[in-house]
Amino acid sequence: MSEAVRRLVLLGPGLGWLAIFLVLPCAIVFVYSFFERGTYGGIDYIFTLENYARAADPLYLSILLTSARVAVITTVAALVIGYPAAYLIATAPKPWQMPLLILVMLPFWSNYLIRTYAWIVLLNNQGLINYGLQELGVINEPLPMLYNEFAIVVGLLYGYLPFMVLALYSSISRLNREIFEASADLGASSLRTFVRVTVPLTIPGIAAGSVFVFVLSIGNFVTPNLLGGGRSLMVGNLIFDQFLSARDWPFGAALAFVLIGLMMLLLIAQAWAVNRSQRNDAHA
Amino acid sequence: MRKMPIERRLLTGHLGLVYLFLYGPIVVLIALSFNESGLPTAWTGFSMEWYGKMFANEAIRRAVVNTLIVAVCSTVIATIIGTLLAVGLERLRPNAVLEAFVFVPMIIPDIVLAIALLSFFTLLNVTLGLHSIIISHAIFNIAFVCVIVRTRLKNFDKSIVEASIDLGAGEVRTFWRITLPVILPGVVAGALLAFTLSVDEFIIANFTAGAGPSSTTFPMQIYAMIRFGVTPEINAIATIVIGFSFFLVLLSQRLNREAAE
Lengths: 284, 261
Known about the structure:
Chain A is mostly helical. Helix content of chain A is 75%, strand content 3%. The mean pLDDT of chain A is 88.
């Protein structure tokens, strides 16, 4: 079989599918982002930068900033909660590790909408948490826990914490345990060992998990839509509205590429962080 | 480990809280599905009423059938194309840009892919329906299958492929008789993941389904029910979905372990 035929059979269908149904549609949207909105919701093929300028309008800028803030808070929370959990699983006796990890990942396999819905039941004013707190006499009035940023963060954290634990586990479990012993033998306290040895060596896992959670959070639609109330709180909802209700496709398209731009900056930062940590390893 | 029992105990307590956070909401939904009143705050007695309502709901039944059609078709397409792509990338090593490109469908936000596909199908005047959801789901499924199959290919002793070809088996025959059996667990794992992702996917389906119940998928139906208001029927649906997906994961784990032994 000639090299050309082999290439065509193996790579052709996959790359062809992605070229037609991924690259081409994204190119169309990119082009749309530079056109004007038609009077009746269509597209007027007149070049403009207005859509990108509008994204910087304080109203929309604040939505972009909210999205970034929610994503950062969720990522940090997932890291702080996920690291000790992943650490314990990775240092548990071997036969325990897989069952403990599967137990973390299991909820991820059930429907995301249903997992989000569960938090409506738990967080609303007549929900279980408010009811419990009132019965216990901790509060008199129900706490407003649903339809705000708090609810969005809780929902995103619930959805993506398993990813973070998985990424951190695979990084921590690769560490050579003799390093901890060496550090302890040399007189470092366990906290110092953790901060100076464990964390730096697991930067690739931290970066991978953080990027995962951040990217899935910042562009999320379902969680802000169901737990954040009806308003467009995050950029995913804003894009959704531009396409399905406001019928301003060019502006929605521009917002989509602003989102992609933010994500690319982050991925470059991640590559840089991992690269740096590896170079430091090489020096050590 | 025995040196610092206090730290270890704190960590264990922390892990316990993490499990409580992950499973608490699920347990609540399951308990509520059997609650006669359907309300989270008042237990009025055990009842299977909500399950009866759910099974009698024509819209839910149709949505489940639609989702199964979409998931099976997009999984079959993605498993074949994704496996070929994985073998091609591993054997031919085209270049770094193409390798990175395969990850794009995995990290692009759903909402961006959704609007891109809607623009594309609209521009070409394609009638939307189950077929357009199948095409769209295959995009990210190809990428996931490809990545999973490649991890399996990495640990694959390539000398047996060369031996097979040296012995005159031909490339196609070698693929069927040597390569495929070796990477089969990876292919099955990839297919299972693709199926799950498709069953679960909401936004892209919502944009590429077109109007009308004939192409409403199960997640679209659940979304509509949640938006409509909290109805206790959702608890029953949730319990069945959670039970079914847990069963599938545990089954695939078991199959994996048996394959390893």
